[in-house]
Design brief:
mainly beta, Immunoglobulin-like, Maltoporin, Chain A, 22-stranded antiparallel barrel, 5-stranded mixed beta sheet, globular
């Protein structure tokens, strides 16, 4: 018994000492500066300590074997050391700065975002309906941003020296194949969509994500609202038509409907067009949109559909004919778009969607008839994984399917048909890498294969952003972008290549205290432009990809809604230097749709005593080039400058009613967009000409808007 007790006394201190392990080390940041107050502990135990002013820590533990040592500190990423506890001595640990999604760096080169959830909101959806001169058209509102050129006889988006066909539109990530209403030549078009159905707009003037393709210049991303805030009915009565909308909510599901009817006949009867136009039947359209949403615990399903029927009958002056040339058009467009997103565990998400569009045009030009039928669809699936606050990965695949048929019958009854079928397959992968709160990197790549062109391309994309201070940051972006030649070319010849553009962008942005400033310099290098040897693309034209070009410039943007109470204004300025040798150009020249200088000033002021918002918008564009056949130089002359001063006034009758009045080009500037020259010279050997002045350059608009809402606190003041 005595021996046993002695053994116990001898071995007890040895066992006690072997169970005590000292854990120690030093914690610093990535600049070797000591971090005071960091928590250091063994996971699953109470053993731990805090670092002192020198970043040092030490504590004892009875734990043995493999353990996890956790080091955590506010504003830093947690750090883990895994191993045998006896090795946790004199550790040298560096903590990485945590990424702050609210104040950290963002990747913004080439991109304007809008909406309540965007980090940089420079143009909200409601700006579309409250900007003077926009008349509720999202394209007209976007034309007040830098990088765009107002081409008043067209109405579509022309971005940084690119044609309108170089910009593509997407709804909830899916392609819209005919985003603009059909119209006559030299008569501006409008977008097909109601701005009230969308929660946000992302307008990329260059260097856009690898998720999107087939656009040499830019993409416009429209995102439908996820969950409406209230049930309501909207009624509008306008000088050119009427509209009706309703939103119904039941549980986690909702349905929004919008319908509108437009007819310019009463307007033309009151103020007839006098610029070489005779409306036999003014523009008339009926359109409807619907968005269905179903929100699950971890999922979101959306179904969007839009329908538009429009027709017109117009006679237009033509210098080559004694009488006016008659043009008749009937257009029908039906579009469906569905998307489903599911959020898995471990920060995985999967998004799938599909869109399909049917578009028909029945056209009459004097005795000739042209019928076009186009069916297009887009199927897409993508996955996203957030591995940490510093790294995420976005990848997916998609296919675009198009079938286009055109029939032409001349006045003698001769028929001619053209068309094409195409499947365009694409895959993409992109990652956001946040190196710190001040430095971020986006890397992406996209590949595309066209069955029509029988060609494959690879497009790298990269963007870098650095944030030196709280409000400002610098960004760089580079990318290659490809686009299939336009339908009016590939319907005749598909033995061509993708057209190509490479973008180089340098951006500085300041956002803070109600102010936004952006300065962006860019260079675009065009290659493989399609050229042909006739005035217009024809069946017997000779087509090549020998064209090229460039576009460079500087865009400036300033918005301020804090300096003066009740005043919100923004100023946009763009400088553009561009030339291209494409289409039927005989040499490199600046195209007619490009202005060297563009300026927009938009103001909105709330007058509390009058319960009114008053707004002015002024747009300026320097003269656009045109070709004078009386001169040996090509595209060497310019039109007069474009000027437009517009005014709007919105009066709040009560919480649910607004009276709205708008005048575009209130000073009546005679804007000339181009000149048409005679095909043959006169007796003196001179080619006569006529000025092209769009019929809708000046107009006034009166509207009454009434919202009947289930939310008694809701009022139209929020919309102003």
């Amino acid at each position: 018994m005595k021996n046993i007790i002695i053994a116990f006394v001898l071995f007890l201190p040895l066992g006690f000492l072997s169970a005590q392990t000292i854990v120690s080390g030093t914690v610093t940041d990535n600049k070797k500066v000591p971090i005071e107050g960091a928590n250091v502990y063994l996971e699953g135990t109470y053993d731990g300590a805090s670092t002192d002013k020198d970043g040092k820590f030490t504590f004892e533990t009875e734990e043995t074997g493999t353990q996890t040592l956790v080091i955590s500190m506010l504003s830093y990423e947690p750090h883990y050391e895994i191993g045998d506890v006896t090795y946790f001595k004199d550790l040298k640990i560096q903590l990485a700065e945590a990424i702050n999604s609210l104040s950290g760096v963002t990747l913004t080169a080439g991109t304007f975002e809008a909406g309540d959830n965007s980090k940089v909101s420079v143009l909200k959806p409601l700006d579309i309906v409250t900007t003077a001169g926009a008349a509720g058209d999202f394209v007209a509102a976007l034309q007040t941003l830098p990088g765009t050129t107002t081409v008043n006889e067209d109405g579509r988006l022309f971005v940084r020296g690119g044609s309108a066909n170089e910009t593509q539109v997407f709804i909830d990530g899916l392609r819209v194949f005919q985003p603009f209403s059909a119209t006559a030549n030299n008569t501006p078009t409008r977008g097909r969509f109601s701005p009230f159905l969308f929660k946000g707009i992302t307008f990329s003037t260059g260097g856009y994500s690898a998720e999107y393709g087939q656009a040499l210049s830019s993409v416009l991303l429209l995102n439908t609202s996820d969950v409406p805030d209230q049930e309501k009915t909207d009624i509008s009565i306008m000088s050119v038509g009427a509209g009706l909308g309703h939103t119904e909510i039941w549980g986690d599901q909702s349905l929004s409907l919008n319908t509108s009817y437009l007819n310019l006949a009463p307007y033309e009867a009151l103020l007839p067009s006098t610029n070489g136009v005779n409306w036999k039947s003014p523009y008339e359209s009926f359109s409807g949109e619907a968005v269905f949403r179903s929100k699950g615990e971890k999922s979101m399903f959306k179904l969007y559909t839009g329908f538009n029927h429009s027709n017109l009958d117009i006679e237009q002056e033509d210098i080559n004919y004694t009488d006016y040339v008659r043009f008749q058009l009937t257009n029908n467009n039906l579009y469906f778009n569905s998307s489903y997103k599911y959020y898995f565990q471990n920060d995985w998400s999967l998004t799938s969607g599909a869109s399909i569009a049917w578009d028909t045009n029945d056209i009459g030009i004097e005795g000739d008839k042209v019928d076009t039928r186009e069916t297009s669809s887009h199927i897409k699936i993508k996955a996203r994984k957030n591995f940490s606050s510093r790294f995420d990965l976005n990848f997916g695949a998609e296919v675009f399917m198009s079938k286009y048929d055109q029939g032409y019958t001349d006045f003698e009854g001769t028929d001619f048909n053209a068309g094409y079928d195409e499947n365009l397959w694409a895959g993409f992968m992109e990652s956001d890498i946040f190196l710190s709160n001040k430095l971020a990197l986006k890397l992406g790549v996209r590949g595309e294969q066209s069955t029509l062109l029988d060609e494959f391309n690879i497009s790298p994309r990269v963007a870098l952003a650095y944030k030196p201070g709280e409000f400002g940051q610098f960004s760089l972006a580079y990318g290659d972008f490809y686009q299939r030649p336009n339908s009016d070319i590939v319907k005749f010849d598909s033995n061509l290549q993708f057209e190509k553009a490479s973008h180089y962008i340098l951006n500085y942005q300041y956002v803070g205290n109600g102010k936004t400033f952006r300065a962006e310099a860019y260079y675009k290098d065009y290659g493989q432009f399609v050229k042909y040897n006739t005035n217009m693309p024809e069946f017997n034209s000779l087509y090549t990809n020998s064209g090229n070009g460039y576009a460079s410039g500087l865009d400036l943007f300033w918005r301020d809604n804090k300096s003066v109470e009740h005043l919100d204004y923004w100023v946009s300025y763009s400088y553009l230097d561009t030339e291209r040798n494409y289409a039927n150009f005989r040499e490199s020249a600046t195209p007619n749709f490009a202005s060297k200088y563009n300026l927009s000033v938009v103001t909105k002021y709330w007058v509390d005593k009058l319960r009114s918002q008053v707004g002015f918008s002024y747009s300026y564009g320097s003269g656009r080039p045109y070709n004078n056949p009386n001169s040996a130089a090509f595209m060497a002359e310019k039109t007069r400058s474009y000027n437009n001063l517009s005014f709007n006034w919105a009066y709040l009758i009560d919480q649910q009613k607004i009276l709205y009045f708008s005048v575009s080009n209130m000073l009546g500037f005679n804007n000339v967009s181009n000149y048409q020259y005679a095909d043959t010279p006169n007796m003196d050997g001179v080619y006569n000409r006529r000025a092209i002045t769009p019929p809708a350059d000046s107009f006034f608009f009166v509207g009454f808007f009434w919202t009947i809402s289930s939310d008694k606190k809701s009022n139209q003041l929020d919309n102003l």
